[in-house]
Design goal:
This protein is an alpha/beta fold. The protein has one domain: Vaccinia Virus protein VP39 (Rossmann fold). It is built from ten helices and eight strands. Strands 1, 2, 3, 4, 5, 6, 7 and 8 form an eight-stranded mixed β-sheet that branches. Strand 1, helix 2 and strand 2 form a beta-alpha-beta unit. The longest helix is centred in the N-terminal third of the chain and has 18 residues, at 11-28. The mean pLDDT is 95.
Amino acid sequence: MSSGYIHTFSVEEQARLVAQAAFLEPYIFPTIDFSGCARVLEVGCGVGAELQILRRRLPQLHLTGLDFSESQLARARELLRAELAAGAMELHAGSAYELPFADASFDGVCLIWVLEHLAEPARALREARRVLRPGGTLSVTEVFNAGLHIEPPCPAMAEYWRAFNTLQRQLGGAPDVGAELGELVAQAGFGEIQIRPLPVRMDEFMPDAARRREFIGYWQTLWLSGAAQLLERGAVPPALVDAMQTEFAALAENKSAIFDYSARQVQARQVGAHCEQ
């Protein structure tokens, strides 16, 4: 499976993923609806951070996580030790393109920040449809990086973000896949498609200084997670990384600053007969 994973698989990155899931929970999880489901699969579960949140929010579910990275799964086994021991979850190694499960094995399938790292997102969605029972629920949350808007203008951040997204494309990823998410889900054969934006925004209506620092700190850490590869490939100079961080710090202290990002989320149903792969 071709994967444009720009963030690396370091211990530090694994810790960042756990923190990221906690930070983004109030933005993305309230609209993930698996009501009426008993067995749900998360494709690309990584270190298990989203699985842990799903378990807490929807304790009636039996959850299965799948990831292609053994190092990520090893961290997930540590994080989810109690849930695994209780039989509430299971973890599997495998490819999003060839899920190691029979047709109609699950009531729900969840993908969070996964398609952006795949060269063939449509293929992964077709596999998700295959393992869903008729009437089962698909939930997909994805990035739309081109939609980022920052005020006042931050030239170093803009240059770094362009390089970040260019590298992700070169690695086989799709940093704007959220813009076509509804179409991809429809082409994979799903119906009853609902598309919603997920705004993640800081502006003058976030006056609390600690909250602003937390917000900016999350985004700065996310951007820095790609710095090692960008520097190694000569895609950005060290001075740009430093300037980008200076601009981030200024945004945190500027009460009138705007940082506006909008992800995309789709919920759909498995309808009709299973499609050929």
